[in-house]
UniProtKB/TrEMBL annotation:
Entry's family note: Belongs to the CcmH/CycL/Ccl2/NrfF family.
Keyword Transmembrane helix: yes
Protein name listed in UniProt: Cytochrome c-type biogenesis protein
UniProt keyword terms in alphabetical order: Cytochrome c-type biogenesis, Heme, Iron, Membrane, Metal-binding, Signal, Transmembrane, Transmembrane helix
């Protein structure tokens, strides 16, 4: 009986080995996929933020020490389950609105974008005004 038990157990272990390795590989693929997604999201966020030290470079392109720390901070926050908006808000609170390449629309930024348009329209009206007064005098 003991002689039959040992070969039977060995056969069962060998038969189940491919299934276990397939399950382990599938679990690793899922974990790897999550890690890859997290890394690509971290890179996207790093492309949206300016480097505080390097001029005209985003965090993704910059090779300064603070950029490396901030990239690691972004990845760590993603691992902790924080969303893109939470990370961007954290960085904005820590470094100010100038860290964003696309700042949120506020009164100050609206005035920056609206002032040139209003100035241009005012100049057009000023240029057309003499023509309008000449037309009304001739009548």
């Amino acid at each position: 009986m003991k002689l039959l038990f040992l070969p039977l157990m060995l056969f069962m272990l060998l038969a189940m080995a491919p299934q276990q390795s397939a399950c382990a590989a599938q679990g690793h693929a899922v974990a790897s996929s999550k890690g890859t997604d997290r890394l690509s999201l971290a890179m996207d966020i790093a492309k949206e933020l300016r480097c505080p030290m390097a001029t005209n470079q985003n965090l993704f392109e910059s090779e300064t020490a603070i950029a490396s720390e901030l990239k690691a901070q972004i990845y760590l926050m993603l691992e902790q389950g924080q969303s893109r908006e939470q990370i961007l808000d954290f960085m904005t609170q820590r470094y100010g609105e100038q860290i964003r390449y696309q700042p949120k629309l506020a009164l100050g930024t609206a005035m920056l974008w609206g002032a040139p348009v209003l100035l241009f329209l005012g100049l057009i009206l000023l240029a057309l005004r003499p023509n309008f007064t000449r037309l009304t005098r001739t009548e």
